[in-house]
Amino acid sequence: METERFARVRAVFFDLDDTLCGYWDAAKAGLRRTFEAMPLPGLSTEEAVLEWAAAFREFCPSLKRSEWYERYLIDGRSTRVELMRRTLLRVGVDDPARAEALADRYGAERRAALRLFPGTREVLEDLAARYPLGLITNGPADVQREEVSDLGLEPLFRWVLIEGELGFGKPDQRVFRLAEQASGLSGSELVFVGNSYRHDVRPALEAGWRTVWVRRPSDVPPSADPSAVPEGKPDGAPDADAVIGDLRELPSLLP
Asked: 240 and 197, same structural domain?
């Protein structure tokens, strides 16, 4: 039985964005509201979102290998401003002040739109009565702390490990080792629950943890490709111990 795979689990760690809360849903809503209130010249709201998405695809894949990474770790605003600056340049506008105004509006709109997925709080409260819980999340220190606070998650987690505060994050094995040290448990006694195969599932498997892969159709960044689908598992890669489509399936998996 599937539950037998989790028989030794003594603590549960979670990813945050798009595992517990709808980060990309909030980002898409925030972008639309921003460009509705502050239109880009000659573009509809959806066209403006697609220009931002194109700037995102150009900038973000190499961000962690560039001089931007140290700023990104500490201050999410600097990255938002740079993305808006690049978006404006794509439509022929070189206006740093406007980029700042757009970035600040987007940050506020995204923050206002962020929500836990249905049933998440109930699942966490159920599990917190049975196991100590931890959070391992990538992203800037300020943004991630803001999200944890806004969503009211602080009382539920004994350990919170944030990329922006550590200087490294998933899939780096060091973050899983830190979680083991903090909890005093071995990998075989820990389970990681996350939505990304590359950042959550595979590195946790490599660390010797049990894994639960949460797969939702909404887990897609803003994209110019209408057929975009959530990230999959590479051929031949190891399987997660369990795959679920809704976090409310998790409690029944764990003993």
From this structure: yes
In angstroms, the CA 71 to CA 89 distance is 21
Give bridge partners of residue 210 from the DSSP assignment.
191
Residues 6 or more apart whose Cβ sits within 8 Å of residue 248: 118, 119, 122, 123
Provide the domain count of the chain.
Answer: 2
- How do residues 164-220 score in pLDDT, each as one tens digit? 999 999 999 999 999 999 999 999 999 999 999 999 999 999 999 999 999 998 778
Domain boundary among 113, 145, 167: 113
Q: What is the b/e burial string over 14-38, where b = at least 16 CB atoms within 10 angstroms of the residue's CB?
A: bbbbbbbbbbbbbbbbbbbbbbeee
Print the domain residue range for 30: 24-113
- Asked which of 94, 113, 132 is the last residue of a domain, the reply is 113
Q: What average pLDDT does the segment 148-164 reach?
A: 97
Closest CA to 208 of 178, 186, 181, 187: 187
Torsion region of 140: left, alpha or beta (phi above 0 gives left; psi -120 to 50 gives alpha)? beta
Same domain (yes/no): 121, 221: yes
Q: Are 104 and 77 in contact (CB under 8 A)?
A: yes
d(CA 39, CA 32): 10
Residue entry with tokens 């798009």: 18
| pTM for the structure as a whole | 0.94
C-alpha separations of 217 from 10, 22, 101, 106, 244 in Å: 30, 11, 32, 24, 12
